[in-house]
Give the backbone structure.
Amino acid sequence: MLETFQALHVRFVRIVSGPGVSEALKRLEIDPIPEGLPYLVSETTSEIVEPVLAYLGEKYVSFALPGYPARLKLSGHSREAFVRDLKDFYDFLDARRTPIAQITPKHIEAYANELRRTSPVTLKPYARWTRIRRLHSVRAFVVWLQNNGRLAHRFLTTKVEIKNKTYEILAAGADAAAAQDDDISDDEDDTIINVMSFDETSLILNALGPLPSEVVDRCGDVRVGFRLATELALNTGLRRAEVSTLVMTQIAKAVGRKRRSEYELVPLNVFGKGRKWRKVVVPAWLIDEIQIYVDSHRAKAISARTTTTEDPSRFLLVNPAHSRRRRGEQTSGDTIGAAFRRTQQSLVKRGLLDRTYRFHDLRHTYAVWTWVQRRQEGDPDPGKFIQSQLGHAFRETTEEIYLKTVNLFEAEVYSEGYRKIERERSYRLQKDDGED
């Protein structure tokens, strides 16, 4: 039976007090509660908006032992901003005569469009980060409503996992189920977004093996190709299959390109998903590493070929000269993925890593880190660059997936972004010192 609509005309209240509040808190089993928790009250019914209060109790209240006062989490500013965001959403639903229990994905989409218009209070366009914050608040609330059986219509959700913590969020658009195409393997499923920390990536990269420039004799270290493949995914966002099928004709153009700066991003044509070519940019230092690999490790591997099958030398990554079989032939995506997985499993057994990641998670990490890095450097629209690099057909795919991740872990991701920048600069400085 559908809920009868009744406009709430919600009012923001800053301090928890009064018998009505106490009774509502007891029903929700969040009593006692400290002063200062904001909430919403209906001007129509004079009752507390119970779904909001229940959610706030879970999100912002930290309970102690029986008989001791509970404490509020996070800052007062964060709590107030969140409740005001929900007030705005309730006002939006009132104007459309829709009770909260009857919302659908179309209401979220319509609310997002509403935020792109002029504010009825200031008569000015909403600030970009106000729009982002309000949508994040509403989406988190909707997921909670659904998980607690308070919605009549089903929303698709996805999960974001960072540092062993999993957060459920609304999926990217009402047709998010279409993302699980038959041609996407479990290893490349984007319905779960995993972002690696800087420390985790550094640990895995070092365990995978040395960079081509770090091998003194350059005689074909078996691990160099795996390290280079991982660096390519982490620094460009390429998929595993795209890394393994990079061709020498395109690599030669990138290596031979004149550069104006040591920090320049070098364009490279990639044959990607959907059998389409696209142009991505690669950090100049990584192009240098590719050149060293081609001139030494790869050249030795090609000369060590013993098979008479089709010449695989058109591919960048080949099995090393010391391989037990298929020396000098194309390194498959499965082989690259297996090496990435084995390295992490070894680190977990030694107690150095808490969990393992998919090779595809390097793509997620690249997207989030690069978004933050470009925003730090003054790019007002980093999503456009990320969309181009990842080869997404629609801008909404990039923003819905990765922008929500950035906002969930903004402080942490900013820190990682800075360290990524410093890592690249440190690499260049060390290389320049070695050439002097």
Q: What stands out?
A: Residues 410-435 form the longest helix (26 residues). The chain has a mean pLDDT of 76. The CA atoms of residues 32 and 67 lie 8 Å apart. The beta strands are 10-13, 39-42, 61-62, 71-72, 157-162, 165-170, 192-194, 265-272, 276-283.
